[in-house]
Design a protein that fits this description.
Elements: H1 2-10, E1 54-55, H2 61-81, H3 84-106, H4 109-131, H5 136-151, H6 179-182, H7 192-211, H8 226-245, H9 247-255, H10 259-272, H11 290-304, H12 313-325, H13 327-348, H14 351-354, H15 356-368, H16 385-390, H17 394-417, H18 423-440, H19 450-462, E2 463-466, E3 475-476
Antiparallel strand pairs: 1-2, 2-3
Helix pairs in contact: 2-3, 3-4, 3-9, 4-8, 4-9, 7-8, 7-10, 10-11, 10-19, 11-13, 12-13, 12-18, 17-18, 18-19
């Protein structure tokens, strides 16, 4: 009982990193349901738009003030109940959210949002990168880059594994973050955590930019007019900034975990899958073009070659393309994905293609170790049902794996019975499926819930309503 109470105390935040290589003592706190309101952005009020123009309600000043108040409350509580690197982030974030609220209340929402990014993400990231040593996960990434440069694979073979830290649960693309360090570059330029942050912000910004097309000017102006162009890009900038500053992503970036870039590329894949809008809000849309379908597959292929948590997106998006645009679009999507995955593996783990032991090591490290099916297991702990079952012994572990497979089967059946026919439906199906798998699977941390929360937050930020209408018309904005 005392041991359980001690574990419960360590888990007060109910969040820990999703990385398999991070001990609970170093686990980053994550926002609980109350603080996980989808990353919301501030901007001009609805009144600034014309009565016929589509607007995004979560970019309204009133919504963002309320959301930032929730962010601030979470950060303050986390600063009180956490310690170490988590507490450093919480203190910086509390200041950032508080300053943003004051500026937002009196002056510019855009300025407030950007300041919150600087104080809640950039400052603690730089502080922790200089004042603290690398987390276990970053050490593994740096080691994998050294192995790649010298042996053509980022993985130890079975004979070389001497403990749980010998495993590399990440897929080959994650190795890119450590290449400069492996090449001898020091300081922030060689810090793998900094490159993971860059690898998150760039695709995340692209996802918002693509999903937020220019809307017609007031009075029926052209969609490509300078005013419409500036408005859409301001919306994309605000949405990106708030998503980055939110506890869901900002905390993960500051304390450096490997999940944010995976989520960012998944969102980019969804954005590229949005059908091209032929006119204003409410008008018909065409299906995704060949370039869009292939590009969506490429983006998801990168995510799948970063971490296995993105793999559920393959059947969900493939079925969505097939049901919405036809079988050819689905095959184009899958072709882009498979070609990307193979090319990246050939470039970043070439030994896997010609050395059987290297191929076995890839499966052992990136599939079996996360499932707890290797000799050495992660010592990280959580209070999720699947992990608690695993702690009961072999029978509990088998049951947890069985429940994980059952969750996957349930998602597959739902795709057959009721296939998603648009991006929101696909994102919801993916979020629900991932949440179930994280709840039931073995050796899973609360930090993995960055994926379903991030997916729902991205949908909220892209939600469009018709200004001035008594009933809201909701849809994901079409692309350019």
């Amino acid at each position: 009982m005392a041991a359980y109470t001690s574990l419960l105390t360590r888990q007060l935040s109910f969040w820990s990193t999703g990385d398999q290589l991070t001990r609970y003592t170093n686990d980053a706190g994550r926002p609980a349901a109350g603080g996980s309101v989808p990353s919301l952005a501030a901007g001009a009020s609805t009144a600034a738009y014309g009565p016929e123009e589509p607007v995004r309600p979560w970019l309204d000043r009133r919504h963002i003030i309320g959301t930032y108040a929730v962010f601030l409350a979470y950060a303050v509580l986390f600063a009180v109940f956490s310690a170490g690197e988590d507490q450093v982030w919480a203190i910086w974030a509390s200041c950032g959210y508080a300053v943003a609220l004051v500026i937002m209340w009196r002056w510019s929402a855009t300025t407030a949002v950007l300041i919150s990014v600087a104080l809640a993400v950039l400052a603690p990231l730089l502080w922790l990168s200089v004042a603290y040593g690398l987390e276990d996960g970053m050490k593994v990434i740096d080691r994998s880059a050294v192995l790649l440069l010298h042996h053509g694979t980022p993985y130890f073979s079975s004979a070389q594994v001497t403990g749980w830290l010998s495993y590399n649960p990440y897929l080959p693309v994650m190795t890119l973050a450590g290449l400069l360090s492996a090449a001898g570059v020091g300081g922030l330029a060689g810090n793998s955590g900094v490159w993971l942050a860059i690898g998150t912000v760039v695709p995340l910004a692209a996802a918002f930019w693509i999903a937020m097309p220019a809307s017609p000017d007031h009075g029926g102006g052209r969609r490509d007019s300078p005013r419409a162009w500036l408005r859409s890009h301001n919306d994309a900038l605000l949405a990106t900034a708030i998503a980055v500053a939110s506890p869901v992503i900002g905390l993960n970036l500051a304390v450096i975990t490997t999940d944010p870039p995976v989520l960012a590329f998944m969102l980019l894949s969804l954005a590229l899958a949005v059908p091209k809008a032929t006119a204003a809000l409410g008008d018909a849309t065409t299906g995704a073009s060949t370039v869009r379908a292939v590009s969506s597959g490429v983006a998801l292929g990168v995510a799948c070659d970063l971490k296995s948590t993105a793999w559920l997106g393959i059947p969900v998006l493939a079925v969505m393309f097939a049901s919405r645009d036809g079988a050819r679009a689905a095959w184009r999507f899958l072709t882009g994905l498979v070609v990307t995955a193979v090319v990246l593996i050939a470039a970043l783990a070439p030994a896997v293609l010609y050395r059987p032991s290297a191929a076995v090591a890839l499966v052992q490290n990136s599939v079996l170790f996360p499932l707890g099916l290797t000799h050495y297991k992660t010592p990280a702990e959580s209070l999720l049902p699947g992990h608690l079952l695993t702690d009961l012994g072999t029978a509990g572990h088998v049951l947890s794996v069985g429940l994980l497979l059952a969750a996957g089967l349930g998602v597959a059946i739902s795709l057959v019975i009721r296939p998603p026919r648009d991006i929101p439906a696909a994102a919801w199906r993916l979020a629900i499926g991932l949440a179930l798998m994280f709840l039931l699977g073995p050796n899973v941390r609360f930090g993995y819930f960055i994926y379903p929360l991030g997916l729902l937050g991205w949908l909220a930020l892209n939600r469009v309503t018709a200004a001035g209408s008594p009933g809201s018309v909701e849809r994901l904005a079409g692309d350019r």
